[in-house]
Specification:
The complex is a heterodimer of chains A (119) and B (108).
Chain A (H helix, E strand, L loop, with lengths): L4 E2 L3 E3 L5 E6 L9 E7 L5 E7 L6 E3 L7 E6 L4 E6 L8 E8 L8 E2 L3 E5 L2
Chain B lengths: L4 E2 L2 E4 L5 E6 L9 E5 L6 E4 L13 E6 L2 E6 L8 E9 L4 E4 L3 E5 L1
Parallel strand pairs in B: 2-10
Antiparallel strand pairs in B: 1-3, 3-7, 4-5, 4-8, 6-7, 8-9, 8-10
Chain lengths: 119, 108
C-alpha cells in the first residue's frame, strides 16, 4: 500500500503563490511519475503536470506553463507543486497522484489540499 | 489538445446496469482509465488499461474501448456506486494527460 500525504489547507491573496507538498513514508513513490491534478468546486478533474521519475524533469500542461513549478526531493521522498500569480479561479482542491509509466493510470492519490484564494 | 466528452449525468435503479461513455477521436487507439469519486473524497481507480480492474474492485465493474468510444459498465448497481466517474488517458501528441468532464451516476 502506498500512502501519499499532502500538506494542509492554504489561504492566499490574489497574486500570491502557494506551494503544496506530497510525501510518502511507505514507498519510494518518486520512482513513479508524480502528477498534480486539481478540482475546482463543483467541477471536474484537471491535470496540471508531472515529474519524470528517472530524470526529474517536469512536464506542464500548456494552461499552467508559465505559473507552475514542480519539484521533488528524492532524499526525503517528497514532491511539491508551486503555483504563482494566483487568481480567484485557482481556488480548488489540489491532488498529487502517481503512475508507473506515462500512459499508465493514476494508481495512488493523496488526500487533497484545499487552496482558497481570497482578498 | 485531445478532447474527451462525457455525458454529465446518468441515472439507474438499483440492481440495473449503468453505462458511462467517453467519446474521442480514435479513443480506441489509446489506453483509457476510469476513476470513481465520491463526494469529498479523492478519486479511486476502478479500471485501468481499458479493461483491467485493480485488486479490490468488484467484478461488477467492467469496461471496453474501441473506435471512438470507451465505456464503463457497472452491473447490478448498488447505492454505494453513486458517485462521479471520470475517464482519463495520455495524449502523446500534446504529451498531456486528459480527463473527461465526468459523469454523475445517480442511483434512483
Amino acid at each position: 500500500q502506498m500512502y501519499l500525504v499532502q500538506s494542509g489547507a492554504e489561504v492566499r491573496r490574489p497574486g500570491a503563490s502557494v506551494k503544496v507538498s506530497c510525501q510518502s513514508s511507505t514507498y519510494n513513490f518518486t520512482a513513479n511519475y508524480v502528477h498534480w491534478v486539481r478540482q475546482a468546486p463543483g467541477q471536474g478533474l484537471e491535470w496540471m503536470g508531472r515529474i519524470n521519475p528517472n530524470t526529474g524533469v517536469p512536464t506542464y500542461a500548456e494552461k499552467f506553463q508559465d505559473r507552475i513549478t514542480l519539484t521533488r526531493d528524492t532524499s526525503i521522498n517528497k514532491a511539491s507543486m508551486e503555483l504563482s500569480r494566483l487568481k480567484s479561479d485557482d481556488a480548488a482542491v489540489y491532488y498529487c497522484a502517481t503512475s508507473r509509466h506515462l500512459p499508465g493510470a493514476f494508481e495512488h492519490w493523496g488526500q487533497g489540499t484545499l487552496v482558497a484564494v481570497s482578498s | 489538445s485531445y478532447v474527451v466528452t462525457q455525458a454529465p449525468s446518468v441515472s439507474v435503479a438499483p440492481g440495473q446496469t449503468a453505462t458511462i461513455t467517453c467519446g474521442g477521436n480514435d479513443i480506441g487507439g489509446k489506453s483509457v482509465h476510469w476513476y470513481q469519486q465520491r463526494p469529498g473524497q479523492a478519486p479511486v481507480l476502478v479500471v485501468y488499461d481499458d479493461t483491467d480492474r485493480p485488486s479490490g474492485i468488484p467484478d461488477r465493474f467492467s469496461a471496453s474501448n474501441s473506435g471512438n468510444a470507451a465505456t464503463l459498465t457497472i452491473s447490478r448497481v448498488e447505492d454505494t456506486d453513486e458517485a462521479d466517474y471520470y475517464c482519463q488517458l495520455w495524449d502523446p501528441r500534446s504529451d498531456e494527460q486528459v480527463f473527461g468532464g465526468g459523469t454523475k451516476l445517480t442511483v434512483l
